[in-house]
Amino acid sequence: MKHYTEDGLYSGETHKMDDGSLHTGKTHTKTSKVVSHEKEGPFKMNASPFNKSKGLWANIHAKRKRGGAPNKPGDKGYPTDKAIKDSQ
Hints:
With 88 residues, this protein is of the alpha+beta class. The chain folds into 2 domains: 3-35, no CATH class; 56-87, no CATH class. It is built from 2 helices and 5 strands. The chain starts with a strand and ends with a helix. 2% of the residues are buried.
């Protein structure tokens, strides 16, 4: 059976989590990714929860409203100093 990640077709080893979801790798690590039997999978390969046209602050407020924790400096998705300055 074919497996897919956000990046496309995956042919390596997988492991099952306690909640029943599949992840990449033989065991769970910080770099493990969700694996699906369908291309679209639960990770919505081609969709983004952010709206680039509304801007940085609209996305920050939307994340707060959803109850998401803010990104820390160094995290993927953390705005650069230039992005913050440009949005003000």
